[in-house]
Amino acid sequence: MVLLVHCHSQIGSIQDWLGVLSLEDTPKILAFSPASDTIDVNPETKISVLFSHPMSIQSCVSAFSLEPQVRGSFETNDLSLKFIPKTELPSGGYIIRITKQCEDKNGKDLDRVYTVPFRVGEKEIPKSPELETLLVLTGTETECLAGGNSTDIKLGEVDSVCSGIPGPPPFFVRFTKPMNQTEIELGLRMEPSLSYRLEWDNTSQFRILPDTILTPETRYHIVFPKGIHADDGAELEETIRMNFLVGPDLSDPEVIGFGLESQNCGLGTQEIGSITGARWDSNFCFWSRGLPILNPNFYQFRGGDDGSGISGSPLACADVNTDNFKIFFNQFMDTTSVIGASKLSKISPPSTNIRLSTWVWSHCQTTFPFGCKELTYSYAESEASCNGTLFGNIGTGGDFNLQTSALSPNYYPYYEFRLEPEAKSISGKRMKVGFTIQVEAK
C-alpha cells in the first residue's frame, strides 16, 4: 500500500484515503479541489490534485492546465500536486485539465484525460469604515475644572469645549471597524496645528492626547483623509472633517480675602473684609476683594507668644490662633505652588528670622484634579520666647507663634505678607499679579 504524506485538508486526510488506494496498474486521479462543478469558489483558492500512485510529478505539471490561463506556482510531492495562483482569481468560469501525458513512476499514463469545471464567485467587498464616535470634553469653567462632560461632536455643533480640565483635554475616537494604526497616525491632522500623541485602546478606538491646552475661543478641526484603510482592506471613501469651538479662557486665579483664624473668618462663614480695618478679635476679615488695602495699622494681629518661654521648656510654644493668617482664593489652587510662593517678613526693625511652622488647607476637592481654596498659615519667629533664643524642638512641642506684641507701641512692629504670582490654580494658570498686604502686631 502507498503512504500519503502531503494531503490537502479539503480533499481528505491520509486516513480517509488509505482504504481507497490499491495496487491497480493504471494510475488515476482520486480527487480535485475545487471539486467538479463547484460554484462560488473563493477567489483566493488553491487547486489541489491527489493521485492513486506515486507519479513522475514533473510530467503531471506539464500535463496540467487551467483555462483561462493564470500565472502561478506549484507545490508537489509524488502523490499530489498543488497549483497556487499568483493573484486572486477573477470571478467567472474555469476548467482544470490534466492530460494522459501525466504518468506514474513506471511510465504508465493516467487512465484518461481529466476535465474539471468550477466557478469563482464575486469577491465580497468589505464595507467602508466609518467614524462612529468623536468625544470631546465640554462645560462651564467649573465643569471643565472638574473634568468636563463627554460630548459627541458627530451629533451636532459643539461650542463650549474645555481648553483644559485642567491640563490638555483628550479626545476619544472610535471607528466602526479595526483600522490600520500606522495610516491613522500618519494621516490624522489637527487644524490649527497642535502637537499630540495617540493612545490606542484597541485597533478601532484611541485617544488623541494634546501636549498643550487648547487656545480659547478657537475653532479646531480634526481631519482623517480619504484613503485611510481598515484592517480588512476597506478604505475611507471620503475625507472626514469634524470641528468644534473651544470655550472662553479660564479665569485668572486671585486672592479674594485675607484675615486671621481668630476672626472666625472663612469661606462660607464670613470672608468679608472691612473698609475701616479689623483686629484679631473682630468677626470679619481684614480685607476682601473689592476693598482698598489700607495702611498696616488698620490690620492688627496679636503675636501668639506671651513672653513666658525659656530654653528647653514648652512654655509659650503652643499654637495660638491670633497670629495664624488665612488667605482665600476664587479657584481651587495648586497647593504646592501656593506654599512655595508665600512669605511673611518683618519690615520694622530689628530684622528677625520667620519660618512657616505648619499650614492647613480647607475647602478642598476630594476628587481629581483636587486643589483647595482656603489656607491657614502658622508662622514661628526666632525672637519669640518659646525655647529661649532658639526655635522650638520636639521636646518643647515645636514653635508656632510670632513674638509677643501685647505691649507694642502704636505703629510698631509692621509685618508684610506676600504671595508671589508663581502661585497657580489647578488649571495650571498663574496669578496675573501677586498679593501683598502689611499688618501691625498689637
From TrEMBL:
Keywords: Signal. Pfam families: Big_5. InterPro entries: SbsA_Ig. Residues 26-119 form the SbsA Ig-like domain. This is Ig-like protein. It comes from Leptospira montravelensis.
